[in-house]
Fold each of these.
Amino acid sequence: MDTWLVVGLGNPGASYAGNRHNVGAMVIDELAQRGGATLRTHKARARAAEVRLGTLPGGAPCPKAVVAVPLTYMNESGGPVAGLMNFFKVPAERLIVVHDELDIDFAQLRLKLGGGEGGHNGLRSITKSAGTKDYLRVRVGIGRPPGRMDAAAYVLKDFSPSERKELDFLLPDAADAVERLVHDGLTTAQNVVHAR
């Protein structure tokens, strides 16, 4: 059974842990917890764990996946991702990147294959290091900054208290979306996730 690589983007360190920009890493924590796994430091400059993504009908185990969070800053995510792809022999078509998305309303999820980076430095770094834009993305909506707030400042702020309550639903939904992508493929997963 082929291994998948699911990477959640964020910045390392406790001061960034609750930032909007770190929602991708939060989803990986959810997936690791579901798989009963602990993320451990990997030589590719990432924290990673091997899990099974849910169970198939009849209780058969699902495909193997490596869930990971780069230990570098967001704009250098590509090196660790390429390192993990090489180490676990995962091609770009089995790479899923979970990241925050300004252009989607808070708590909305969108799935896509390839496309531009939309000014997202983590995606730009991965595209450069992986040598392709054609990898799957789980885009977790964080909404636009209020008023005239700079987007760069907004993504590095923690979720508001009301948003934090929503995270209890959003993170499991995003983890479900990752599992659907692996089990059902992009089109079927989009039909379910985008209908919400």
Amino acid sequence: MHPLTGDLPAGWLRRLAPHARPVYRRAGHRLTRQDTPAEQFWLLHSGTVVIDLHVPGRGDVVLEELGAGTTVGWSWLVAPYRWQFGAVVTDDIRALEFNAAGIRALIAENDELGRELSARFLSVVADRLRTARHRLVGLYAYPADTT
């Protein structure tokens, strides 16, 4: 079981299951690109993914590395449903890929499920933003060496 969903009631898991499919992605595969439509999310079972952010003049800056037991993607939950960060597979992954539109429909149908999933993904959002802030401060706290 995955930490994000492992303790959900069986009835909710049965409702989520039709919107998920197992996937395998090789290293180098880009799962998401910043500012493109966010149409899915992933629960990682193995492998690694890096989260990146395009910074003008610096290119794609790696913010965080995610491994087994983590969740990739939260932008699907917040309109206008566009990726806030990019994500690239760095070590082949096995994951469950969820269709975001289907999960949003379930959330709209069931207030209790919606509150629970929203709270769980809010934790993911907070972790990603905290890590991004620390990484960017580290990059820009000191001027680049120009010698």
